[in-house]
Design a protein that fits this description.
little secondary structure; 74 residues; 1 helix
C-alpha cells in the first residue's frame, strides 16, 4: 500500500491484510475510487449525529437511588 504523510511524503507499507475505516460518507467514496464493486456501495447511508453536554443538577431534586441518568433529545 502507498500512503502519504502530512508533509505529502510517500511511504510504501507491505502487509498481508489492510483494514481501512472512514466515516459513513467517506467509506463508500474510498471503495468507489478504489474500484471495489458492489451494488450496495453508496446506498443506504445513515449518519448518526450525537452531542455531549455537561451540566450540574442539584442532588436534592433526586432520590438516594440515582442509577443511570440520561436525557434524550430528538
Amino acid at each position: 500500500m502507498e500512503v502519504f504523510s502530512e508533509n505529502k511524503r510517500s511511504h510504501r507499507i507491505r502487509a498481508k491484510n489492510v483494514v481501512v475505516t472512514a466515516s459513513t460518507l467517506e467509506t463508500p467514496r474510498l471503495l468507489l475510487i478504489s474500484r471495489v464493486q458492489g451494488l450496495a456501495i453508496g446506498r443506504y447511508l445513515t449518519e448518526h449525529v450525537s452531542m455531549i453536554a455537561i451540566s450540574t443538577i442539584p442532588r436534592r431534586q433526586f432520590s438516594d437511588k440515582l442509577g443511570n441518568f440520561a436525557i434524550l433529545k430528538f
